[in-house]
Amino acid sequence: MIYFDNAATSLYKPAHVKRAVMDAMEKYTANPGRSGHIKSMEVAEKIYDTREAVKEFFNGSNHEVIFTKNCTEALNLAILGLLKSGDHVIASCYEHNSVLRVLEHLKSIGVEVSIISSDLYEFADNLEREIKENTKMVICTMVSNVTGEYSNSEKIGEICKLYKLIYLADGAQASGHMLVDLKKSNIDMFAFAGHKGLLSITGVGGLMVKNGIELNPLMFGGTGTDSENLIQPKAIPEGYESGTIPSIPIISLGAGIEYINKNFLKIIEKEEDLSKYLYYSLKKLNFLTIYSKCDTKNVVSFNMKNIDSSYLADVLNEKYSICVRAGLHCAPLIHKKLKTTKTGAVRVSIDFNNEYLEIDKLVLALKTIYSSLT
Amino acid sequence: MIYFDNAATSLYKPAHVKRAVMDAMEKYTANPGRSGHIKSMEVAEKIYDTREAVKEFFNGSNHEVIFTKNCTEALNLAILGLLKSGDHVIASCYEHNSVLRVLEHLKSIGVEVSIISSDLYEFADNLEREIKENTKMVICTMVSNVTGEYSNSEKIGEICKLYKLIYLADGAQASGHMLVDLKKSNIDMFAFAGHKGLLSITGVGGLMVKNGIELNPLMFGGTGTDSENLIQPKAIPEGYESGTIPSIPIISLGAGIEYINKNFLKIIEKEEDLSKYLYYSLKKLNFLTIYSKCDTKNVVSFNMKNIDSSYLADVLNEKYSICVRAGLHCAPLIHKKLKTTKTGAVRVSIDFNNEYLEIDKLVLALKTIYSSLT
């Protein structure tokens, strides 16, 4: 089996992460932040350590970390928590439905939405002309989950700073795969998933919120603080983490970040090399239409002539045990731009666990499939 | 160390659950419901099996299961998803802040809220007189997290059926500790936590929704279905599980339910015996005020004379390594009824892993503390 669906989730969790989970199931099963006893405090300390590790990893010392169940919840919290009727928001056409469907909902309550249809890196160059008096927020993914293109986050951050706009970056595909520096890029809010590049188990994501930003909560409930008060407290993170937090997934995230910190340069170097090799290997096949660029971050999407992407993905799975993802990848507007709404595209997404030989096998499979069809 | 904080979370996870998590970290790390390849389908099958196991466990064959991150998200989804300005809702004073703070928020947008202050079992007897023309929903916890009292769910269900009201039951404390039968009790929506009586790791809860009930989603995003459409689909569960679901916590929940199914009678019998033993052992201590009743479900709360509950819990933790929870337990209105808002109460919550000897040790510790204070 060859796994090329790392943009959906990383398949191989480091032994360090697995050990942390096994350890946590023995020692850290109590409820942090609810009681004052030793078992609760031990877990609370692990959660605190992970919050600090997240801040350091993304260079967000002026940010707080709100843990969520996934990146989608983090994006919903950032967008629904900030925007009100009459506000204007600018987003790229590369955004995922976890942004686009939220914006579509907000349109119905009077939020104005502008979508910039340029290539992702040029989003920054087209941003200024879209800014209006009521613009409050700019949303741009750091890396496209469809093409592997990346945004010019430093320039976006500069413009947002100049115009006093809140810059929300979707880090789902960037986290763990490239250097993300919230301070340098002036990112106000940053959403991440644990189970992709950060190598945690599923069940955790997070939103990093710069100090001073006020959000409305997505949900209400017990915070372990100020329990007498029926009004949801607005302290970050407590007021935004109602109910029992996913402590064991969070502990696994801490271990994932520890692993990455120790191996970051090696991971990035290998992923860059594999990305280039993948891109050029597929680019050589003249029966493919490639939607990615040569400096892609871990993702190459393509179609084979007029073949439906789902059919091709099924053949790769069933005949060659190669796992890729077909369809629209929950990002419909970029497919509209690529004119692939009907066919979708086949997405190959690697991580540092992949090997050159696996890419060679993919190329061979595609050649064989193509020749059997013609 | 003696652990008496099972109402917050169960400390000891069965070997069967731990093995399932370890197994899942090897085999089931792909993203279910996102791609069509073998690794994704294998996880999807495990998730499907767990949904079916949940339905069967709670006898909810007419319900669908929406997996959430915890019970709080499930309650928020049920309440915020259903109620609109102008609706009336009736709840018990035993509800947790995961209900009360949601209702407090809804008051500000024009939802009418009635709270019934009777004892929990008598909620049913007092319900009918509170029903108005615009009453839409009745919310009642099955077991109080403060006193261990239980509700008369069959009678509540009958009344709700008669008046065509939606009956939402909070099963956080009931699940895994007593027989819950959605059909028999005519429960329309049922919220549960995985990590308490159902013995899963943290990171998963769920809302069971009777077929035909329509809800607005709490958040928007990728559902792996109908990706071209910017409008959030309303299919249950997909439309309410945006983003990557907590697949590994869900798999652990499946294993927890398997374990309980095999041992349910033994678990319930032991917990009933321990509950009685705990109640009568503490009742004998005339320097305690007990807030629970003799047929309590796993919880006894009390105070010692005029001593602040947090102080007493700290002494139990530090000097006797006994873990209990003090304060208001995120349920302020029942503390108001008990007149314990200022002091809080000490809560002892057992599960089937506790032993009689541990209760004896608690009694001894309380006697020693009391005599040292007088």
Question: What does it look like?
Answer:
- The structure is a homodimer of 374-residue chains.
- In chain A, 39% of the residues lie in helices and 15% in strands.
- In chain A, the strands form 3 sheets. Chain A has a 7-stranded mixed beta sheet with strand order 2-8-7-6-5-3-4, sandwiched between helices. In chain A, strands 9-10-12 form a 3-stranded antiparallel beta sheet. In chain A, strands 1-11 form a two-stranded parallel sheet.
- With 374 residues, chain A is α/β, with parallel strands linked by helices.
- The relative contact order of chain A is 0.17.
- Chain A is globular, with a radius of gyration of 21 Å.
- Chain A has 2 domains: 2-8 and 264-368, Alpha-Beta Complex (Aspartate Aminotransferase, domain 1), CATH 3.90.1150.10; 15-259, Type I PLP-dependent aspartate aminotransferase-like (Major domain) (Aspartate Aminotransferase, domain 2, 3-Layer(aba) Sandwich), CATH 3.40.640.10.
- Chain A is built from 10 helices and 12 strands.
- Chain A has helices spanning 15-27, 38-57, 71-82, 97-107, 123-127, 153-163, 247-283, 309-320, 332-338, 356-373; strands at residues 2-3, 63-68, 88-92, 112-116, 135-141, 166-170, 189-193, 205-210, 288-290, 299-304, 322-323, 346-349.
- Chains A and B meet through α1, α2, α3, α4 and α7 of A and α1, α2, α3, α4 and α7 of B.
